[in-house]
Design brief:
The protein is an alpha/beta fold. Helix content is 35%, strand content 17%. Helix 6 runs parallel beside helix 7. Bound molecules: 2-phosphoglycolic acid.
Length: 226
């Protein structure tokens, strides 16, 4: 299983150093990918690194941006792109996300593309169209080395998860479009629901937000997965 840990904008320097020490004690068969906030990236050693974002632009005169080339120089192997918080708060569009994926691919960094519908889109039945649209950016680019993370927006940080039937329906849709790509589930995955989630064979791993910040609880989660 692939377990991507999305720290979001959490953990200051001191907190992160102590967190990283605990994280390194974790024992698991799964592949852990740590995605810290940018400024904590140089503090990481001994753990597979991902970023939470990347610039659409190259290295150069783009104040405040971090390019794929720069990430590569810090040994970043994966990058989350299109997280719903960026789509919502930074108004990132599917076209922006496609440009980011291309920049990552130029540097050999594996994109973790987040997709998923809002509560309104779930309730009005348009969620499959939303997901297809979000995946359509991959139509004319090499999609062989991209991880997909299905994260229903209404499930992120809320403690509410879809039913297994709802997850299976979407995973089947994604895998019908991208049969060879790994697909993660994200959105309130935790120790209370992992026994239910793990019954779904189609899930290749998890993208964890809240749980990523608690190494002891994360160890429990990983034990339940094995
Ligand atoms: P959560 O976040 O696990 O706290 O719901 C997941 C995510 O936003 O990637």
């Amino acid at each position: 299983m692939i377990i991507a840990l999305n720290n979001k904008s959490n953990l200051n320097k001191e907190e992160f150093i102590s967190y990283l020490n605990s994280l390194k004690q974790i024992s698991t068969n799964s592949t852990l990918i740590l995605c810290p906030t940018y400024i904590n990236i140089p503090l990481v050693d001994g753990v597979l690194l991902g970023s939470q974002n990347v610039s659409r632009t190259d290295t150069g005169a783009f104040t405040g941006e971090v390019s794929a080339k720069q990430l590569k120089s810090y040994d970043v192997k994966y990058s989350i792109v299109g997280h719903s918080e960026r789509r919502e708060y930074q108004k990132e569009t599917n076209e922006d996300i496609k440009e980011k994926i291309i920049k990552l691919q130029e540097e050999g960094i594996t994109p973790i593309l987040c997709i998923g519908e809002s509560k309104v889109e779930r309730d009005n039945g348009t969620y499959k169209e939303v997901i297809k649209e979000e995946l359509s950016i991959l139509n004319d680019i090499d999609n062989s080395n991209i991880i997909i993370a299905y994260e229903p927006i209404w499930s992120i940080g809320t403690g509410i998860i879809p039913t297994n039937e709802e997850i299976i329906e979407v995973f089947e849709l994604i895998k019908s479009i991208l049969p060879n790509n790994k697909v993660l589930y994200g959105g309130s995955a935790n120790n209370d629901n992992i026994d239910t989630l793990k019954q779904i064979d189609l899930i290749d791993g998890y993208l964890l937000g809240g749980l990523s910040l608690k190494p002891d609880k994360l160890q429990e989660f990983l034990n339940k997965l094995n």
